Amino acid sequence: FFASLKPERCVRSIYLFSKILHMNTLPEFIKAYSGLLMSDPGPSQDKSDKSRKM
Fold first, then answer.
1. So what's the pLDDT on residue 18?
2. How far apart are CA 19 and CA 15, in angstroms?
3. Which superkingdom does the taxonomy of this entry point to (predicted)?
4. Any idea what the Cα angle at residue 36 is, between residues 20 and 16, rounded to 5°?
5. How many CA atoms lie within 13 A of 9 on its CB side?
């Protein structure tokens, strides 16, 4: 029963994520995401530095 629910949840989350990307609330989403990155400045900051160098 749970195994049959898991794939549906993944699809639903992907659908919600794509919806967020296409919506006008993208700046708000970026703000929330950057807030998450700021609260966890370990490996995420390293990745941003690497992308800047490239």
1. 75
2. 6
3. Eukaryota
4. 20
5. 6
Q: Which two tokens stand for residue 50?
A: 């690497």
The tens digit of pLDDT for each residue in 31-53 reads 777 777 777 555 545 555 555 55
pLDDT tens string 20-35: 666 666 677 677 777 7
Dist. CA 44–CA 18, nearest whole Å: 22
DSSP conformation letters of 31-54: HHHHHHHHH--SHHHHHHHHHHH-
- Alpha-carbon distance of 24 to 7, in angstroms, equals 28
27: helix, strand or coil: helix
| 53 HSE (CA, 13 A, CB side) | 6
